[in-house]
Design goal:
Blueprint lengths: L3 H14 L7 H10 L21 H10 L11 H14 L2 H13 L4 E4 L15 E5 L2 E8 L10 E7 L10 E7 L5 E6 L8 E12 L3 E2 L5 H17 L10 H10 L6 H28 L7 H24 L24 H7 L10 H12 L20
Parallel strand pairs: 1-4
Antiparallel strand pairs: 2-3, 3-7, 4-5, 5-8, 6-7
Helix pairs in contact: 1-3, 2-5, 4-5, 4-6, 6-9, 7-9, 8-9, 9-10, 9-11
Amino acid sequence: MTDAAELRMRTRELLAEHPPATTEPLDFLKARFDAGLAWVHYPAGLGGLDVPRSLQAVVDAELAAAGAPDNDPRRIGIGLGMAAPTVLKYGTEEQKRRFLRPLWVGEEVWCQLFSEPGAGSDLAALGTRAVRDGDDWVVDGQKVWTSSAHLARWAILIARTDPALPKHQGISYFICDMTDPGVEVRPLRQITGEAEFNEVFLTGVRIPDAHRLGEVGAGWKVAQTTLMNERVSIGGMRIPREGGMIGPVARAWRERPELRTHDLHQRLLALWVEAEVARLTGERLRQQLVAGQPGPEGSGMKLAFARLNQEISGLEVELLGQEGLLYSDWTMRRPELVDFTGRDAGYRYLRSKGNSIEGGTSEVLLNIVAERVLGLPAEPRNDKDVAWKDLAR
């Protein structure tokens, strides 16, 4: 049984064999993965050692103290937080060994092809079709709000494989090569001026059946694993006290006494407390994950994340007065990552507006919390047993 002491020893051996100061970052990350120190709770041979998730902190602390490179989670967050746990749970051994290592070290960026123009909040209503043709599936349709599609090599994709079944039952889950013929990525310019999101058009895209995750028609079940992990990765990120959006506001308050008013002080105190409660709740949620897969509680964390980000960024703009109305750069760019704390107040205010939409709208997440966490009666639905092809659209 590997314990904290043995993990420290393994980590120090890695550092001795691959000194961060003289080893290329990618080579170091590959060696770390092969040593089982990437995500220690994953199986041996797949970046882990089959030990409790809580021991990851032991490894991370040793590596941070030694100045070791990380894999830039902000750039590959979809792969780490959504694709990897889904591949681990539903993938074949061949799929796990093909995809997990380049995903974790950052060689291959992933994106998510779920939402569609007519299937956002009601994702199960999606209309992208996948038709079997021998050993391949031919996919046609359109996806939208796809972060990092312009950078991605791979995508997790859900498509309708049987329109004669009710909408939740006729869906299958695939891994799509974004470099294949028929995949077209177009930028969606946002209120920030950037095009972090994209729309993706799929025309006759051929996906091998070997790139299907889960059984044919069981894609909704597989997608639930992805979505629950997505909400945990968005709302339950590990941050220090005064990390995240509350940090810049607290610093401005301390460093700029001329901006203070009694009303702003009261509001800042309330939001600071709420941010700290959310941070500690996220820590408790991560501890619960040690015992198994994420549940619907992640939806509550994502709800809190969205609301707090919007309220805190609004307070920051108000605190800064005229400065808060400035915006540094409206240049059309297609960024590699979202950097809330490294940008100005205007960017934070505008970008946070999307937090209540991405990763599941707040309205849908409220229903999930009500039904699956609080046990309240579900809203009446008259479309769950109707074939998708017969639904009004």
